[in-house]
């Protein structure tokens, strides 16, 4: 059960990273939050790549990747989508409570199973249908405290909470990038891609943000070096735990366990930001998580 512990570790570190990012950098805006999220892990990821892969093997993987047009096209599609998702993700957790935004990541497998049915004609299992129902029910119950104002009030509350809507958009983008990410892994080596792709993303995102938003990245890093490195360490540990866990267990089971990051996120929301209605939101997120388990095992 080592994979289970590693998957829980990945869940813990991704949620901790979100909480630290919001705590340290929310005042700086989504652009610098995204910069810290992607640039911070770079030194740690480069170190891990150096440990896991001899130089000759690294160069061999890079050479093969550069000679594969399909791989390059796939990565070329992934990078702008991931950049958009990161920006929306950072803005969502910046403006809204973690306990009302992170649970909406549960919609990613829901979107995947629905688009698979609509576009590819893939059959929905009864477990998958039940899982979708639980995810939707859980999203409704997240706003349980306002239910006394009427049965439609939770839906109206969802549309009033801009961070929740942004995270729904992130979940939809992740439903697309998951497909392309799997394709890229099949066209390369899983461990090499997981490490090198996040290094590439850590260079690409700040470059794009610098081009369009002109943030003062060097000044930001100098003034917040400890916070950026601490956040980067959590993200690097998440990636390492993720890579190792998914190499030891079926991907569906590993991803289902990693989605417990939603529950960790709610706990961190209470611990770091004194967010309210945590019991109700934890209950609702647990229902959504059960829905995810049904979907990925259906």
TrEMBL record:
This protein's record includes keyword Transmembrane: yes
Limits of the EamA domain: 2-142, 163-297
InterPro entries in the record: EamA_dom (IPR000620), EmrE-like (IPR037185)
UniProt GO cellular component terms: membrane
Protein name per UniProt: Permeases of the drug/metabolite transporter (DMT) superfamily
Domain of life: Bacteria
Alphabetically ordered keywords of this record: Membrane, Transmembrane, Transmembrane helix
Transmembrane segments: 41-59, 102-120, 165-185, 191-213, 225-245, 251-273, 280-297
